[in-house]
Amino acid sequence: MAASATAVLFSSLLCFVALTQIVAQTQNRTAPPLDSCNGVFVSYQYTGGGVLPPDLGSDRENQPYRFQSSLFLLNNDSVELQSWRVFVGFQHNEYLVSASNAVLTNGTSVPGSVGAGAVFAGYPNPDLQTGIQTAGDLTQMSVRVDLVGTQFGVASPAVPMPANISLLNDGWICPRSFMQGNSTMQVCCTRDPNFNSTVTLGNDFLPRQTGDLTIIYDVIRTYESNYWAQVTIENHNPLGRLDNWELSWDWMEDEFIYAMRGAYPSVIDVSQCVHGVQGQFYRALDFSNALNCERRPTLVDLPLAATNNSDVGRIPYCCRNGTILPPWMDPSQARSSFQINVYKMPQNLNRSRLSPPQNWAIQGRLNPDYVCGPPVRVSPSLFPDPSDLLPDSAAISSWQAVCNITKPAHSRPRCCVSFSAYFNESIIPCQTCACGCPANNGQTCSATAPALLLPSQALLIPFENRSNLVRAWGDLHRFPVPNPPPCGDNCGVSINWHLVTDYSNGWSARITIFNWESEAFPNWFTAVELDTAAPGFQAVYSFNGSLMNNVHSNTIVMQGRPGLNYLIGESNTSNPGTQQSVISFSKRLTRGINVAARDGFPSKVYFNGEECSLPTFIPSSSYKLASPGSLSFIVVFIAALLYLQQ
């Protein structure tokens, strides 16, 4: 027995030693030191921190703490790393207060929240050169980003480290980052041998990228103390759009806007120049003629009437009241352009010292949300000669920012959809608080109770005036009515999709758009995505409509016909602006679809590019049929409204 126990103990010891060696070998294999990384070496080091007021006592999870850390990159490869981007997987609700030598790539200014992780890009020097190019000059091969911020819940001696760090540049592969001790995280990223780069040897510029929206910043004239730039915004997404666009960015070197053509600051404010370093340096400059000295200005388009104004207009693609349409609607209106005169400060007083603004952001009135990356140096833009007699002229320097449609966490849509059908008397309404609810509703309504079924005529009545009608409908059909009742959808635009007919060879639906806002929507469009029924699309009768191709082949887009493409706002009599059309479908290419069960209702609906909130269920065909009078009431009433609106 003793010999057997000894053998077991000895075997266990051998296993432990072998396991220790394997772990050590694995660490050595996946964790090369800085000088043995033949790629891009990235490290994150926590350097210190401490508790911050207020002292929350036992609530340690929400206790704030200061953190100081550094992000370090070193290019040990044989190719230059252009426009580096590094992800840091913050995971402790971090709030970043400052960052040296870098900016956030999502257009967010610092200070700002980075608790879900952040991507940093180099600024003012975005590139890391090689040891070959610089004879081993570390100041050109590497960069150190010092970070200061607040984190929550991680008290000493624990260390608030990120979940992961990684280089995000195209054509690079990073293994899982590893820990050195408890306060340093490292990773060595190498080039992907299977990546086909479009950058040619000796080319100083990165290729232009594609995205939902691109913004080009072209410097077209430069002087010792100032320059003129042309900014061009172009839409590439077939379902993307901007109305009354607002473009903002951060000046990083105390620049200010002296003049503009084709657009204007939302606020004319030069007080920060007069009382700041700009006024101290430009003592002889008449700031009464300047436009804006904010560090983060907001720029807006000019109205159509300014197009031929000799002082502020006469810029191609300017002055459209901030409307940028999808290319399929009108390619000439899928872009917007303006020029801006920027004054620089002493550290950049050289006609060749040019630096674009950072942290770009763009938004519209009722449009998708965009996140913009940092401006990247690209080859100079070419401008054709208006007379076609002379060669193209090139910009002095050009940068491109790419913006893509995104859905921010906890964001709410700005439009909603209701469903109805010929076989059910009730309307499935927009969801409760579909577009958000006030933080304090005075307990007059419930933000969590499901929306109540509606009679058809209720769609034409503002939510605040529906109470008696909805209660009467509930009493008539014995629907439970909670107390307090559910809140409204709070959407500026609502859309009703009504299933009109369903027969052996085809079916039809009716779409009705309601504008509850006070402002109109010119050149509006809507799109419906039908997962299985779209191939059977035949015609839209009161709108212009077509089935999209390529990636959106199951989507039908519709817009108002010439003269009827203006969706007016809510009138003084509380009647919404309304547009309506019937859509017909054939079943020849969609045999076996179940129109009533689900296939006849859209899976996604868009209005002016914004994806709308949909009901969580569809009308039930097991309920009793609606009477002919109730079905035709809304059609007749809307027809009368449309006649009066013309």
Walk me through the structure.
The protein is mainly beta. The protein is 12% helix and 33% strand. The protein has eight helices and 38 strands. The strands form eight sheets. Strands 1, 2, 4, 6, 8, 10, 11 and 12 form an eight-stranded antiparallel beta sheet that branches. A hairpin with a 7-residue loop joins strand 33 (543-547) and strand 34 (555-560). It is globular, with a radius of gyration of 30 Å.
What is the rounded distance between the termini?
Answer: 102 Å
* Total beta strand runs: 38
Computed structural class: mainly beta
Shape: globular
Mean pLDDT: 88
Q: Specify Rg, calculated over alpha carbons.
A: 30 Å
Instruction: Tell me the fraction of residues in β-strands, as a range.
Output: 25-35%
Which stretches are poorly predicted, pLDDT < 50 over at least 5 residues? 4-31, 624-646
User: Helicity, in percent?
Assistant: 10-25%
Major sheet size, sense and barrel closure: 8 strands, antiparallel
Work out the helix count: 8
Please describe the structure with a list of short key phrases separated by commas or semicolons.
mainly beta, 646 residues, 8-stranded antiparallel β-sheet, 8 helices
Brief rundown of the structure:
The protein is mainly beta and 646 residues long. It contains eight helices and 38 strands. Strands 1, 2, 4, 6, 8, 10, 11 and 12 form an eight-stranded antiparallel β-sheet that branches. Strands 13, 14, 16, 19, 21, 22 and 25 form a seven-stranded antiparallel β-sheet that branches.
